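User: Some background: our group keeps a shared notebook of sequences we're curious about, and every so often someone picks one and asks for a predicted structure to add to the entry. Today it's my turn. The entry only has the sequence so far, pasted here. Could you supply the structure so I can complete it?
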Amino acid sequence: MLTLPASLGPVKSTDTPSGEPSRLVLASASPARLRTLRAAGLDPEVIVSGVDEDEVVARYGVSAAEDVVLVLARAKAEDVAAVLPSPPDCLVLGCDSVLELDGEVMGKPSDPDDARRRWHRMSGRSGVLHTGHWLVQTALGGGCVGAVASTTVHFAEVSEQEIEAYVASGEPLAVAGAFTVDGLGAAFVRGIDGDHHNVVGVSVPVVRELAAELGISWPSLWAGTGPAARGDAGRTAANG
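Assistant: Of course. Here's the predicted structure to add to the notebook entry:
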């Protein structure tokens, strides 16, 4: 489900340039997000942001899960967009995910004990995985747009031995919510209501919709077909 947190005010700039961006940049270190985008035909360059997540959340004064992921996605995209070298005509995607359970916002566990505690709470229950998405087009006059996708995740009843083995694997320590649906944690997820890719960390349909709001056609972003692959700047003005 696509949601736009009202508490953040407008999340779209409508002043966008014509033409397509010459580069797609993913402002995330997540291998799962990169794999998902590549499977969808994209081949983004990865540049990891250096934002302090706690500082960003405090600066915006947000606490709701949907608001937290959107401000963090925005901060990551804007941080990377600000340091990109020429050529400047790029599309930068920032993402952030959290699991919401009983009103608590859960990012990555702080340590193995935290992961164990979470799984004792999650076992046999359902939570909501929220992923914030923020796109910045860096061309002169380029726009930005953001949205949050939310997916309900139904967890299996997990035994103490399974929790210990899963935490010992290290996987839950590296991911929001302390679980995956595309790794060892897949066996502990009974089902989902919503976009599977959103739980992995990026909703491809949402990214497509946001790109369209910026006037960018989805096929132009496919690897080997867009302006970056052709080696041109991808802007109408460059052809004049």
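Suggested note for the entry: The mean pLDDT is 88. The CA atoms of residues 33 and 201 lie 6 Å apart.
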